[in-house]
Design a protein that fits this description.
This protein is an alpha/beta fold. It is built from 5 helices and 7 strands, in the order E-E-H-E-E-H-E-H-E-H-E-H. It starts with a strand and ends with a helix. Bound molecules: guanosine-5'-triphosphate and magnesium ion (MG).
């Protein structure tokens, strides 16, 4: 049976490492450039439409958002929505500050078990994603890749695209789309399996 999220609760939204919630539950963080679909994917995984704010305006999520999610098995975890990077219209100083904030979180969070790196399937991993992958490898945090917005690619081309992304990133990869809920159950199952195995 596929795992299912049966309950969610917004815990905190903060721009300060000092104000993060106590590290009491296993955590899965979602990272990726602004507008790639992090908040949308978290809503789909949670089965709740407005839990995380989705916007057409890039750079919408500027804080680290923690949501407690409970699975049908009773297991609880934290979903963590990270601020998106690479927002072209933000100043260099603002981009630098965000990068430092996210890095401090990724490096110090003792309960962080997995980072899902989102990559727009049409763009593939670029310099920022490669940097993030090697940074997380150096601090010993496991990663998987969600290739988002596969609904924007003809079905006949999807398999080849995902294979290429896998070759380029050398990480497990799941293709996802909000319309049609493509890959959502598969991604949730992969995440839950990972958390169980790393217990
Ligand atoms: N076609 C399509 N559009 C999507 C998909 N997922 C998200 N979008 C759209 O992409 C835009 C950005 O989505 P968000 O979920 O807000 O992206 P985000 O990564 O959280 O963005 P920031 O908070 O700015 O970092 C919105 O207009 C979404 O409706 C998808 O699977 N397919
Ligand atoms: Mg967002």
């Amino acid at each position: 049976m596929n795992p299912r999220i049966v309950d969610t609760r917004l815990i905190s939204s903060t721009g300060s490492i000092a104000r993060l919630p106590e590290p009491t539950l296993p955590e899965v963080a979602f990272a990726g450039r602004s507008n790639v679909g992090k908040s949308s994917l978290l809503n789909a995984l949670s089965g709740r439409k407005g839990l995380f704010k989705v916007s057409n305006t890039p750079g919408r999520t500027r804080t680290i958002v923690h949501v407690e999610a409970r699975l049908d098995t009773g297991q609880k975890l934290y979903w963590v929505d990270l601020p998106g990077y690479g927002y072209a219209r933000a100043s260099h100083a603002a981009q630098q500050a965000w990068a430092e904030f996210i890095q401090a979180y990724l490096q110090t969070r003792s309960t962080l078990r997995l980072v899902v790196i989102l990559v727009d399937c049409r763009r593939g991993p670029e310099a920022e994603e490669q940097q993030l992958l090697s940074f997380l490898q150096s601090v010993g945090v496991p990663t998987i890749i969600a290739a988002t917005k596969v609904d924007r690619v003809p079905r006949s081309k999807q398999r080849a695209l995902l294979d290429r992304l896998h070759r380029e990133s050398q990480r497990p990869i799941v293709g996802t789309a909000i319309p049609g809920r493509i890959g959502i159950d598969a991604l949730l199952a992969t995440i839950v399996r990972h958390i169980k195995d790393s217990d």
